[in-house]
Write a structure and sequence with these properties.
Length: 185
């Protein structure tokens, strides 16, 4: 009888040891330039990049990124100071770039609080994975959240939607204990 109990406990321990570890999700917020918050797994790293827009030329941008379980999580923040009148055109341009050479599975209007944007899901070319994005314009900044499941990952992962749908613009929605991310100078 004791052998059965020990065997059962050992089997349960092995089952939990073999199960993949769930990534810890954290609340993040950005105050600089535009205030927004979101949830993502792992540690977000920042990188300065140049964003090229057919409408507004080259612009300074920052990409915050992390990766977990074959999924890349990215937020691109592009400074379009002085171009707030081009909001719709810039959202359309970013949406078109996200759809280039892809198989569009979903493309629809989206809202976060009072801000308009687009939400889309595409299969990437050459079986490179699936991408879910949300693209918004707020306070002279284009903000694009993108979760990309790479081959071998779970193409139906709810984590993509969890990430993309976590965007909030009002500070009152940022969680206590949220980690502040700074836009690099």
């Amino acid at each position: 009888m004791r052998l059965n109990i020990w065997a059962s406990l050992l089997g349960t321990a092995l089952l939990f040891a073999a199960a993949p570890a769930e990534a810890a999700w954290h609340a993040y917020f950005v105050k600089d330039g535009v205030g927004f918050s979101f949830f993502a797994p792992g540690e977000m790293k920042a990188e300065k990049v140049t964003y090229t827009s057919a409408t507004a030329g080259q612009r300074n941008a920052v990409v915050f990124a992390s990766a977990e379980d074959n999924v890349e999580y990215k937020i691109t923040v592009v400074d379009f100071a002085g171009r707030s009148g081009d909001e719709s055109a810039l959202i359309k341009e970013a949406t078109a770039a996200s759809q280039d050479r892809t198989k569009v599975l979903m493309d629809q209007d989206a809202r976060v609080e009072s801000s308009y944007g687009r939400k889309l899901t595409v299969d990437l070319p050459n079986n490179a994975g699936r991408s879910m994005s949300a693209i918004f314009f707020k306070d002279n900044h284009l903000i694009q959240l993108q979760a990309i499941v790479r081959p071998g990952g779970d193409m139906l992962s709810s984590d993509m939607g969890r990430f993309v749908d976590s965007l909030a613009f009002y500070e009152t929605r940022s969680d206590e204990g949220a980690i502040e991310l700074k836009l690099p100078n």
